[in-house]
Write a structure and sequence with these properties.
Layout lengths: L8 E2 L13 E5 L2 E5 L1 H21 L2 H26 L2
Antiparallel strand pairs: 1-3, 2-3
Helix pairs in contact: 1-2
Length: about 90
């Protein structure tokens, strides 16, 4: 599935571990979720480029779906960043 992302919940003991390069830790009640924000931004950019290509090819409905998926990823990124700031 294009644009899908897998998130894994980790035990609370790993919440203090340093994140890998380019990753954000977002806390949850049961532990933390490691999110690769740059990877999500790249997926969003790829979907926007795909939507532009589809528009040029005349596939406007598919382009609209790709833009909607990119917008959903952008909202998810912002939600993760907002959640991290409010901790």
């Amino acid at each position: 599935m294009a644009g899908s992302v897998l998130f894994a919940a980790l035990p609370a003991a790993t919440a203090t571990a340093a994140p890998a390069a380019g990753q954000q830790n977002v806390a949850a009640r049961a532990g933390s979720i490691r999110v690769n924000i740059p990877q999500l931004r790249q997926q969003s950019a790829d979907l926007k480029a795909k939507a532009n290509r589809l528009d040029r090819d005349g596939a406007h409905a598919e382009a609209k779906r790709a833009r909607a998926e990119a917008a959903a990823i952008d909202r998810r990124i912002q939600a993760y960043l907002d959640a991290e700031e409010n901790m």
